[in-house]
What we know:
Largest sheet of chain B: 2 strands, antiparallel
Strand content of chain B: 15-25%
Number of helices of chain A: 13
CATH architecture of chain A: 3-Layer(aba) Sandwich
Structural class of chain B: alpha+beta
Largest sheet of chain A: 8 strands, mixed
Number of strands of chain A: 8
Order of helices and strands of chain A: EHEHHHEEHEHEHEHHEHHHH
Oligomer: heterodimer
Shape of chain B: elongated
Amino acid sequence: MARRIVITSGKGGVGKTTICAMIGMKLAELGFRVAILDLDIGLNNLDVVLGMEKSINYDLLDVIAGNCRLKQALVQHEKIPNLYIMASTNSYDDSQITKEQIKSVVDTLSQTFDYVLLDCPAGVEDGFKRAVYSANEAIVVVTPHISSVRDADKVLSILARYDLLSKNLVVNRVRGDLIANYETLDLEEIIRFLKIKLLGVIPDDDIITKGETLNMLHSEQLGRSVSLLVENLHNGTRKIYDCGKKYRGFWGIIRRNIKKRI
Amino acid sequence: MKNNISQRLGNILMQDKSLRPERIMPVLKSDIRDVLRNYGELKSDITLEIEDADDGYNVIIFTKITRFFM
């Protein structure tokens, strides 16, 4: 049976889909069979993030409506053969999709994959509930901003109602220079407020902004941080990428000052 | 600066929780469930009651559990 992990946050724009894609790519590169299900109905972007938008013929709604078989809606990644995605629908009307139907799809996928990742929509409404209902683990993504941590706190109080095996935290878009200058929340503070186990830290990187998905894992800092995150996820280790390392000490102060002026 | 951001977040979270104290219930239930499961098998759902008291709240927990594991 696969591990079914929902990637959620509450707040939009924190990088759920990107992190979902990166975790999926890394796990698949390590040899695990991974299926990612885009549950952001109407605002689907997982296919775009993974550069697979041209390969999508059927989507989740087609599977649920019986317009195609499940296998037809599963699209294999061109360059990472162990990675499959099922796109969400473009239709804005999600009223016809129930949490039981999603769970049934996830149950079927669980039989043939090692990991089923569920890309959860922002918010805490029906879409969120549908995604969490099918999962048995959760990853909560935050950025080091007050609004994001506040929303994550609310999401965690809702997740407590579900019988999840684990809830872990990923802090995205971390800038070591800002932490060193005390201009943003640091990781210890976020963990202290949310009281949840830290699974990984993803540094702010231009590659993500540029949308160069396939290069993400080959970037030195991004690749290393995702590797550690996935290692923690799979093996239960607790190795956290140190985003602030190069901004500490004498040379660190110089680097911070240069970055401030740019 | 660090203290300002951290203090502001702390205040916001505290305010959120004090505005809707019932939101703490599922979190409490989940934590209590996790703790009790380490000691025995739960035989019923967990029910929580929060009573106003002069100096805060009384939190009353109702649940049924098998004898604690030795």
